[in-house]
Give the backbone structure.
Amino acid sequence: MAHKTDIEIAREAQKKPIAEIGAKLGIPSESLLPYGHDKAKVSQDFIQSVQDRPNGKLILVTAINPTPAGEGKTTTTVGLGDGLNRIGKKTAICIREASLGPNFGMKGGAAGGGYAQVVPMEDMNLHFTGDFHAITSAHSLLAAMIDNHIYWGNELEIDIRRVVWRRVVDMNDRALRQITASLGGVANGFPRETGFDITVASEVMAILCLARDLEDLQKRLGDMIVAYRRDKTPVYCRDIKADGAMTVLLKDAMQPNLVQTLENNPAFVHGGPFANIAHGCNSVIATTTALKIADYVVTEAGFGADLGAEKFMNIKCRKAGLAPDAVVLVATCRAMKMNGGVAKGDLGTENVAAIQKGCANLGRHISNVKSFGVPVVVAINHFVSDTEAEVQAVKDYVKSQGAEAVLCKHWADGSAGIEDLAHKVVQLAESGAANFSPIYPDEMPLFQKIETIAKRIYHADEVIADKSIRQQLHAWEEQGYGHLPVCMAKTQYSFSTDPNLRGAPEGHTVPVREVRLSAGAGFVVVICGEIMTMPGLPRVPSAEAIRLNDAGQIEGLF
């Protein structure tokens, strides 16, 4: 039988009014600010009112390194949330909002798949409640005010060669990576080189996702470094006097969005920093609010555990005082085969030997996650082509690594297909086995933090960086930023910085190309290898297949 597409399944969803979904978590309807019938923002007043409650259990869903075969991390996050609700645990899901760039590019949307989806799928993957537009606008306001300040006499004595605030747009547009601004004569200002990043790499996005409330948001925005003077002293956003207006633009975007799964369970969808170039977790305000009003909160961190989970533990948990009770690591037989050297076209053929070879990637992630002191269970996201022998090979391997793998059929069967995993997660979370701690202390020097991640998480032999980069890190330490965590920007496809190196490579080198200080967000971005902070579209972008059909419905989103 022909499988329905994700968008067809989503279109048939029996959605409930959003006030009913809020009521499941005890959110009164007057504390919901509705955007249509099926999505709403949760008011800041309600969030403040639940702060004294105890926290529920926090479950992190992460994955192996992504392959073109698709792992289904968001799908598993949604399925597990539904599964926990099915077995009687009051559970909320916390995921990220989707960026337009990948939606129209190669990756597609971020609302789950099959019968484990969050709806309205089309809205979530398009403009949703306008949060990303607000972030883009706030970022652009600051960019305009910096150039305007320089134009009107440059009272702050900004060195126009050292303006570090770039521009952003929420689209994959490689033509904008490096540009020259202010051409066209005296009236347009002083020509200078700049560039665009994708909105989800903006420091404003990171700040929105880490700020506790509007006051904290404005303070962090003010702390951002936008330029340097000739004597290399920093110029802050608050010196430009943009922090107040930016906060006004972000006032509504700060409030978490509530939507529902196909099974009418509550889901918070808020914030969306990329995990390969930013910190890859949904907002602290959504996660901490959910923990106050649900018994279980299932959240995800972007891409493989070497990126998303590492940043969730070392950045988000450190900043928000959170600690996960259990980690679910998503893997598929198909991806194990790809890591074992099978081409994408041959994944439908049984190949137990390739699975055994490819499992090294999974094993590395298991031991990495355990090194944070958190118990881990592997979710095998089932595909129709998987054979019993292949599934058993993954289970046997995971058992040899001191963990358990559970087969999950939520994509096809919704919550009924993931009950086993739900029971296992409850057992782990309630065992009290978690003894979480980040893998490096605040006081460790910045370059040593980079080396710690490269050696312990990526299994690299060395980190290489130009003298100028080491000097820059040292200068930031002298300015009082040495206690910040590091946010590694590298390819998501490999433990190394070479996207083609699958499996579990050892003894490779991590080249650091550039470092950027996000003083407002509170971390140092470390750009490794060839990673781009502005992605490009593929040869055949998904956008070519997206259209409205004769019934006025959207086709082609996935």
Remarks:
- The chain has a mean pLDDT of 94.
- Residues 1 and 384 are 12 Å apart (CA to CA).
